[in-house]
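>> received
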Amino acid sequence: MLFSGSIHYPRSTPEMWPSLISKAKEGGLDVIQTYVFWSQHEPQPGQYNFEGRYDLVRFIKEIQAQGLYATLRIGPYIEAEWSYGGLPFWLHDVPGIIYRSDNEPFKCYMQNFTTKIVNLMKEEKLYASQGGPIILSQIENEYKNVEGSFHEKGPAYVRWAAQMAVGLQTGVPWVMCKQDDAPDPVINACNGMMCGQTFAGPNSPNKPSIWTENWTSFFQVFGGKPYIRSAEDIAFHVALFIAAKKGSYINYYMYHGGTNFGRTGSAYVTTSYYDQAPLDEYGLVRQPKWGHLKELHSAIKLCTEPLLWGTHTNFSLGNLQEAHIFQGESGECSAFLVNNDAVIAKVNFQNLSYELPQQSISTLPDCKNVVFNTRKVSTQYSARSTELSQKFDSSDQWKEFREVIPKFEETSITADMLLDHMDATKDVSDYLWYTFSFQNNSSDDQSLLQVDSLGHVVHAFLNKTYIGSAHGSYKNPGSSLNISISLSNGMTDVSLLSVMVGLPNSGAYLEHRVAGLRGVKIQGIGNGSQDFSKYQWGYQVGLVGEKFRAYNEESSSEVQWNNLGTYKPPLTWYKTTFDAPAGDDPVVLNLSTMSKGEVWVNGQSIGRYWVSFHTDGGVPSQALYHVPRSFIKPSGNLLVLLEEFGGDPLHITLDTVTISKVCGHVSESHLPPVASWGGGQHKTHHKRRSVQIECPHGRIISKILFASFGNPSGDCKSYAIGSCHSSNSKAVVEKACLGRRHCSIPQSIKAFGGDPCSGTPKALLVDAKCI
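>> returned
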């Protein structure tokens, strides 16, 4: 019975790995699951990179050192909201290649890389068959989504991939996710949020029931809102998968999402990845998600023997209620009571009465006593906040470099057609300049420039002067620009900058996908219009600042930096310096006054930003950008930003992130911690319920923001004093908690010196501030 969590090594830093894995273990996980990132490990054919954030062996050994298992999802196509689905772009130029099909060129390179990774793991003795931590490997990824597009080449490829993987003789099983017909002995696995309902089950009786991706949230895109999935919903579907599908391996995707550093995120995906996971982007514990799932894991582990070796039966307890029972040969019995209704249900089970909250599952390790209910959250809630560390509000702190706008005669690549953006750039840059010049023989005040693009953003310049921009969105990736222009008599230069915010990462025939400008017209030249799509074009890959590495201390002198001007034009580079904030709290840049671009600290890209792309609610999808502590020196850190639209760097701030508030809420219907069962002995326990709150390491409870013993209304998200309230609630809690990192306050009449309202069920809600 294994609980697993996805942590992707390139989305954090080696310095973060030990803490992330330790917190995962403390949260009740047995396994760490990760993809393998082909595009980063083999940036050019036969040239490999396993350094820094890409040190896969170091990551797996850290998992092993902490006593956990590992699952290696080699793919090597991974999707994962990673640019190009993790495939290296050089594959695009292999003659005759068709990705993920029964295609010899692709199979050759796929087998080479898969073999490279397997051999690397074998050399380090990291497979469980060698005494290592890797217990499971994955080949391919959600192939059923595209298999039909390849017709007879699809099933043939599945059979080949399975046979190739098994032939590598790792000594541990292989899995294919979302592949119901995975060939023996490869295990078919489920992905999604509701695999307890949607999974058809193993396709062979000798295969376990595996859930490789239980989405704890969902990836976020620029212009989109974060997806909030509650701890209660996650716990419900995990318990249902175990009870109804006899699940024995559940992986949380993601357990820690991390950061899409550099240009690694796929099309329109934010730099922050799965921030709503049990461990947030910075590695801070997100409560109550982390704690509630920890309680679930403890409860399930109490049922291990009957779950794994017992006989499973199920029967109805009502219209929308059912029981799942696991009976062992020696009399052990565990049960799960499921309420699928949207209201509370009372049921009878084995001559006892139980109240089941709406949309919940109760776990009974001994078929009698409820130790956990997925709806009842007894762990604390927490809220994080930022603290200002440094302002950059003095223009004297900044230098700027205005990007050079090329015109046709200054470009070295020419073609009499519009080139594909991705093919032209080979993914070495997000940027491709399209330029052309033409002779205009009259002055036209009512001309209209029309640009259609499959790129994500297009910036337009007329005679090197900015005239406008347009962008698409995740659901409508292309962009169209229609802008009125005034043409003078003489030579006219048009420069159009196509921008990609990550490459596509999914779908069939990815190698045929194109981007960039598809059509350019000018209406109103003379008495008509002119289509420039098949005109003579000049191209420049990337920006001048990229070419000279303006973001590096060593090479930034290659460009001409000037004092900060009052005008903030598009396509401007900015640089300044800062010192490391005191302490060890995570560090972020608040870029809320910027617009769109990329940011570097000491030459390392912390990712793309796009603050001006607001959600439907009118707020940025992401304003805070993580700067790992390992990127920072004690003083003199170089901060460089490339700003596309003209944001204001004077209001950027350097902040730290911390857990600033903790809140606990228990009532008479809440259950004591599962740990109070102790040693797995299945007998009724009488441990008193209590509110337990805890600040992060190095912080203490400084203020009680709210305390009520009685019947407070609401919960930790929103609360108020109810009709019953002990007047000394705050005093009792302050005495127990102030000045301490952790405190426990019993939910009892005795603790509060008497009953404030006899006959009313009592609850205790405490909200506290940490400093």
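>> The longest strand covers residues 653-667.
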